[in-house]
Amino acid sequence: MNSPSDFKTEVNQINVPEEKLNHAIDIAIKKGRRKRLHVGKKIAYTSCAAVLLFVLLLSSAFVSPAIAKVVSKIPYLSLIFESKPVVVIIMENLEEKGYKNIGIGIRYKPKKNIQITVEGSAKYYNEVKEDISKIAKDVLNSKGYDAYSITVIRGQERKDYVLNEQEQAEKQLLESKITKKLKDLNFKFNSVQTDPTENTTFINIEGSKAYYNDVKNDVKTLAKEVAEVNKYTGYNIKVTKVTVKVRKDDKGSEITPVIAEGLISKKEYKVTEVGYKFNPLTFIISTSVKSSDPKAKELGVKIEKTIQDFLRSEGMKAILKNEPYKINVISKDKRKLN
Amino acid sequence: MLDKQIIKKAKKGNEKAFLKLIDNEKSRLYRMAYLYVKNENDAIDIVQETIYKAFISLKTLKKENYFSTWLTRILINNALDFIKKNKRMIPVNDIEKHQNAKAQSVEERIDMIDAVERLGEPYKTVIILRYYNDFTLKQIAEVLKCPEGTIKSNLHRAVAKLKTNLREEFIK
Fold first, then answer.
1. Which residue of B56, B132, B159 is in closest CB contact with A11?
2. Which residues in chain A are contacts of B111 at CB distance < 8 A?
3. Chain-centroid distance, C-alpha A175
4. Is a pLDDT exceeding 80 seen at residue A109?
5. What is the ipTM of this complex?
6. Helix H or strand E segment including A330
7. Between β-strands A281-287 and A113-119, what pairing exists: parallel, antiparallel or unpaired?
8. Given CB 3.0 to 4.6 Å as the disulfide criterion, which of A111, A265, B82, B92 pairs with A145?
9. In whole angstroms, what separates CA A228 from the centre of its chain?
10. Quick one: what percent of chain A has pLDDT higher than 70?
11. How far apart are CA A278 and CA A287, in angstroms?
12. Residue of chain B minimizing CA distance to A16
């Protein structure tokens, strides 16, 4: 080896780009400062939250007798009746935080579970799943619901078939021409839909069955003519008569979801299912306790009382209008508990 | 010692003190990084990463005396990480350079840096630390977290290898 000092001199001849290097150091420090601040902030927030909680605790002790009285007067289930279903609240909270393309579902069997579906790349999913699960948990905690597990899964993006420009034009042209023609001739109809991929146009007739039978062939021929005039031969025309009947909400369907959410969401009630039937109006509450359980009776009474408090509240009186009702709390082995 | 006080200040979060320390070390750090990656931009990136890591974890440094060796360790780890990550990528011009280098090596001056470069790990690092940084065996052992004996034998082998390499070039 020539000499170790040779190496050193050679290395020291390596040109140092001072300006660039200083700039890089600046950036490193800035980055580091942000990181340091971050940690500091976290501590500050945590301690702030602790102080706030403590203050709340103290102040609520002073004010509480009054507040507690008011709150205790409102039955537990009435509070739920006043607010939106829990999944809607979770959804809204997620949307507020800027999450889009979110699906949410609730399931009671075999395990009580809330499932949130996120669309997007695997990377995005991994980034957000913790946060989403936390937001949902916060909502559940705020309502005191402890019976659900939360899963966040990644949904596959579904892409609807998109018509190309030519098909788009075809669809628009046919729909408008046929609509115009039928309108000119005073037919009663409520929709004209063209599906260019299937060469089919659907026309929905409005009115009575007799009217439908009367006009359907005319409408069909007319529409076919319109299509042919516009050089679309071989089009199928389907004339339909579909009417949607909306059943009015009955009392049971208004009340049952509230009872269900309130009782199923808390472990203490051990409720697995809530249903209802008419004549007389009966609410059926299925639980997971066995009738042999020494505490089964107690639970049955507690559930009945919770529901009674709710149904006797002012808001419910208006809905029930003195209609008699029954409450059946059923054990796992199908015995009545109340 | 003045240095010790500055380091203590920096540890408490004083940025000016930290910058002063870095100012003393930056050229050395850059040149070391350059020895590993052989190009300006990557070397700067490595120095930047090193300083960032040092800045956020300075408070974990136990003894002020070890600041320089500590910083060196971070740099070497970063540089080796960098090389590992980019191992499979050989830019096309680099291949050409290598071929040309071989062809011309007889006429070319004997470049000590090139010779060190060709040593490979762990010999390269010991040579750099010993002959560029003038670290003692103990300091090198501290940086590389190895026993002193290992460093000693590695250094021996490195020097021997370097000698043969250089002689070969003469003969060619």
1. B132
2. 10
3. 35
4. no
5. 0.70
6. strand A325-330
7. unpaired
8. A265
9. 46
10. 88
11. 21
12. B27
CB-CB contact of B106 with B172 (8 Å): yes
Query: What are φ and ψ of residue A33, in 5° steps?
Result: -60, -45
| C-alpha angle A170-A173-A177 in degrees, rounded to nearest 5 | 140
Cα B13 versus chain centre, distance: 27
Q: How far is B169 from chain A (nearest CA, A)?
A: 12
The phi and psi torsions of A328 (rounded to 5 degrees) equal -115, 115
User: What is the DSSP-derived secondary structure letter of residue A197?
Assistant: T
At B57, is the secondary structure helix, strand, or coil?
A: helix
Helix residue spans in chain A (DSSP H): 4-12, 18-73, 76-82, 86-96, 122-143, 165-184, 209-229, 251-264, 296-311, 314-320
Give the residue, A70 or A335, on which the prediction is more confident. Answer: A335
From residue A221, alpha-carbon distances to A181, A186, A228, A238 in Å are 12, 15, 10, 11
Q: Going by C-beta distance under 8 Å and a sequence separation of 6 or more, which residues neighbour residue B36? A: B43, B46, B79, B80, B82, B83, B124
Q: Which residue of A has its CA nearest to B27?
A: A16
Tokens of A102: 């979110």
**Which residues of chain A does B128 touch, with a Cβ-Cβ cutoff of 8 Å?**
11
Write a three-state SS string for A45-110: HHHHHHHHHHHHHHHHHHHHHHHHHHHHHCCHHHHHHHCCCHHHHHHHHHHHCCCCCEEEEEECCC
Q: What is d(CA B106, CA B125) in angstroms, rounded to the nearest whole number? A: 27
Amino acid at A23: H
CA A337 from centroid of its chain's CA atoms: 34
Over residues A267-271, the mean pLDDT reads 88
Q: Would you state the structure tokens that stand for residue A182, as one six-digit string?
A: 């039928």
**Tokens matching residue A1:** 């080896």
Question: How many whole angstroms separate alpha carbon B140 and alpha carbon B127?
Answer: 10
The identity of residue A280, as a single letter, is P
**Cβ contact B112–A10 (<8 Å):** yes
Using the 8-state DSSP alphabet, how is residue B128 labeled?
A: I
Q: Which residue has the tokens 């609240």?
A: A89
pLDDT of residue A203: 87
Q: What long-range pairs does A184-191 form, CB within 8 A, spacing at least 24?
A: A185/A222, A187/A215, A187/A218, A187/A219, A189/A219
**pLDDT per residue as tens digits for the range A290-330:** 888 888 888 888 898 888 888 888 778 777 777 888 888 98
| Residue whose tokens read 């015995």 | A335
Residue matched to tokens 């706030």: A52
What string of DSSP letters covers B73-139? HHHHHHHHHHHHHTTT---HHHHHHHHHHHHHTTTSPP-HHHHHHTT-TTHHHHHIIIIIS---HHH
What token pair was written down for B2? 């003045």
- CB nearest B132 (choices: A7, A22, A27): A7
* C-alpha span between A14 and A18 (Å, rounded): 12
The answer, yes or no, to whether the previous bond of A280 is cis (omega within 30 of 0) is yes
Cis, peptide link before residue A4, omega less than 30° from 0: no
